[in-house]
Amino acid sequence: MTRPFFSILRHRCRNAILLLVGIATSCLVFLALSDNLSALPLSETIQSQFIVREPDRVKVLPASQNIQAYVGGKDLFRIRMVNNSNTRLVSQNLKRLSFIRRDSITPNWNRALYYNVSSTPKAFLRWRAERQNICDDRMAAYDNEFLEARDIVVEKRFFKCALKGGELIDSVMNQDEMAEYYELEPGSFQISCSKLSSYFFNGENHLTKWMSSFAELDVTAKVDRVVADFTIAVTRYEYANLYHTMTDWYNAFLVMQFYNRTSFDTNILIVDAHPSGALDPVWSHLFNSTVRLSGLAGRTRFKQLVWGILGYNSLMRTYVSPNPPLLEEFRDFFLSAYDVKSRRQIDCARLSILFVWRHNYLAHPRNPTGFVGRRIYNEDQLVSYIRRKNSNSVVTGVQIDLFSMQQQLQLIANTDILVGMHGAGLTHAVFLPKRSALIELVPNYWSPMAEHFMAICIWRGLVYRQWFNSDPRDEYPEQMTRVPPRVMNTLIKNTIRELCVN
User: Fold this and answer.
1) 276, burial (CB in 10 Å: exposed 0-12, middle 13-18, buried 19+)
2) CA-CA-CA-CA torsion sign (62, 67, 72, 75)
């Protein structure tokens, strides 16, 4: 009787010790992950779910489903749990955790550069030649366009704005646009510097104002968080407009490439308080992470922070650059982030013709009715006529902003001829196949000299045609324009002839 008793006691003691060891180990792991994964506040509340990225698909699992089998699995790319406003991430690569992502689909980040460093773009060479150290070795400015700072502290309380940003448009209707920008007081940016030289950036530039907000860093003051990853600070203007936002994305891409970084290790700090917009999720899909200034801790030290190029100064603007660098590489970067293939070869026996419509929609608080001008009066008639006259082609008409960005890119990447009224949607010409065309329609009351989209076609070697309505009788109330079907068909026939000439 004695021997079994001691055996049972020994067995129970061993189990108790193993249990205590297990609890202690779990606590240590939890504390380590909590330290590495301290989440920045998110603006939305999402239902609990697991999102698992595998090589060929994305699985969305309910929170109740056991995912233990996936952890450490060979095919696991990323597991993310979203619960209320907190995010906890388990990943095979823990170094990419400076910020927490907000999108629900894991993008296809590329870990390679998009250009051959042996053939550096001329713009990069100019930036390097115009480099100026303005704070010992801690800050360097490039060609009066952007600035790099090392070991710089951002103290949020000196950034003055009544808004946090990311609000639903309905809750801030008719608010003044200037209320969505920060006023920076001295101390907003802090850096240790023996002598800070004055510096001015090109144009009417918020970066020049940022320079006046510097204060000497108190090296003894505690910081709430240290961000070791490469980060680009961006202030957006016309944030709901695809064209202007494209210049911001392109600018960030160029800066990322200039520093030999990839989307895998590039983060974005949004320094504005615009409400939520349809294009916001794209930022966190193109880059490792995106966070608003309002989501930072009180005092945050950035090991490497770059003040990004002003959107209006983008090399993608026609008056700035006759030939923007790495435009095709930018296209590849963008499409690959959404896992959109871009290998379409034109088939002149079966062309794809896509009309993009402009319809009313609510984009920002300054347009509470959602009114959109430059619309086509006879959409259905136009598509029906073109289908009859081009029976071998696939002719489609869509309001493209109703689709997700991935769906938009899929449509454009498989289009041979894109047709639409002058408007930001035609910026998608950046993503058209290499052998394709754009037909831009311009109403009578608009200037035919606007060259945004013609420039994109010239840069990319695409066929470009423009129709300007010279007959005021084809203009209708609420800025609607009737496009004569026969004229449209002639435009398309001439475009096809140019595309398909041997």
Assistant:
1) middle
2) negative
